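Subject: Protein entry, chain in single-letter code together with its fold tokens

Area: Proteins and the way their chains fold up in space.

Attached in line: The record itself begins immediately under this heading.
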Amino acid sequence: MAVDFSVAQTARCNNAEELSTALQAAREKTLTLLQAYVDALGPELPVPYSTELNPPRWEFGHVAWFQAFWTARNLQRQAGIHCDPDHIRPAGHMRDEDKFYDSSNVPHKTRWDLPLPDLESTRAYMQSTFEETLHLLKHDAQRNDDLYFYRLALFHEDMHAEACIYMAQALNIPLPASLIKDSPVTCELITDELKDLPMSATTWLLGWSDPALDDDVALIEDEITPIKDNGRYFAFDNELPAHPVRLSAFSINSQPVSWGRFLPAVEAGAVETPRYIRNQGGVWQTRYFGQWVELNLDAPAVHISKDQADAWCRWAGRRLPTEAEWEYAAYHASDFQWGQVWEWTSSRFVPFKGFVAHPYRDYSRFGFEEHRYVLKGASWATDARMAHPRYRNFFPPERCDIHAGFRSCAL
């Protein structure tokens, strides 16, 4: 299936009333996930240490802290991206909340040893900070800068909701049907014929045009379709600035690689067996939130690392697309199906030339400093607000706990 990303496009320019509705929907989802964790683990929410996970009590408290830190406690919130992130903030709703939940200053490994608030206190903190956010949003002005941090808080909560879903998969935590209704295991798949889509040589404008500009039309070498993104739009700093990328002619699959295409490489010994699957008596199965079910061979291969994707490509005589190739095809190929798995690209996650960090500096900085690659698209667990072809997700190449797969290009 192809994603109608008009939902994500609209989410990037929501007004205050629309933002309030979206924030409430996001928080309802967060609280549903919290209850699922409590039902599975008990009120202490104990989990063993993992480099890939966060302690659940920290995770949910952090979501509330982040929202309050950048909205209610941010005295310069109406300055938008021009806010000084280091200005002195007033105290919040909880003693020591910065010492608990500030991901920039609380090393990952230490989060398991923190004297975190109990479940009841965490829920109360989530409620009180959220009510304050909604109150301020209702009374703040309507300019783009005024709403920047509310939009950031919304997308941040959406990201953590997806992280809680793949963390539940890792921990064998069952989730309510409402949260997994779009999973390839639970929904009917569209299995159109796989095609190689030929794309002509062109120049593509990669990234968002600067949302600080009121009117920006990019024309490159007189051969690119004009792209107009005006000042209403939110953009992540790593999506900026838009810049031309010259693309040679290429041919790209219309769909991500399915299990039916991926598993022969595993059976041939060319790729290691992916996480969460096994072969039982000649039948491939997948572990799905704590239960083993038969693998749907028509579904996109998922929980695939970039290393495994590269290995499959070597075996098949193919290659991964660059992020610019993927993005161009998503915009211009009518048969380009995406939205069930994040898709690895061959592109390193690096800053675009002219990059300027936004106030939440660490969002992109850690990814730039580490060895990470760009993933494009969205997964079935991604909120529709986040599913935009220009969004740059980024993970280390060995990560396979996320809902990631890939598609390939002809050599």
Residues 6-176 form a domain with the Four Helix Bundle (Hemerythrin (Met), subunit A) fold (CATH 1.20.120). The chain has two domains: 6-176, 196-410. The CA atoms of residues 95 and 117 lie 10 Å apart.
